[in-house]
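[INFO] parsing input record for Recombination protein RecR
[DEBUG] input buffer:
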Amino acid sequence: MLYPTPIAKLIDSFSKLPGIGIKTATRLAFYTIGMSDDDVNEFAKNLLAAKRELSYCSICGNLTDEDPCAICQDESRDQTTILIVEDSRDVSAMENIQEYHGLYHVLHGLISPMNGIGPDDINLKSLITRLMDSEVEEVIVATNATADGEATSMYISRVLKPAGIKVTRLARGLAVGSDIEYADEVTLLRAIENRTEL
Ligand SMILES: [Zn+2]
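[DEBUG] output buffer:
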């Protein structure tokens, strides 16, 4: 169907979002046009501000609007433990259960031999640098229970163990292939409590 250019462009923008097909994109575009001027302005402003004001913490890689992020700056947190996650959404999931009080390291991806993604393609080198001269005693690998999550966890364990750092992995409370981001609080809590040494 042929639409006036402005709405065609809007449909195109929406359709670039994950999980949004052309049908949903069209519905969202028409909905947006029906919104009040104030709401549309607010929406556009939030999009731009999120993109402009957020960056990745230079220490842990978490998404933040200040550098270092609030977690890295918080000296009351346990400085001897680092929990390693795939992305910032996993940090939020962990913080929500309020049971973990250590530090984080965000990988922004996983090692994936199948897709040719190696250790240098994710935020791993900064972890090694970070661990030198640090008080860190334990690294908890909290990557998802997928093949790539396993490959990443194996690699981290192989690199860190010779340095005398205890490397643990979240317990198998999480179903294979499941996402930490979507795990319920009880499951996540149990997975941390029952973590196993690699
Ligand atoms: Zn940080």
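[INFO] The first strand starts at residue 55 and ends at 56.
[INFO] shutting down worker
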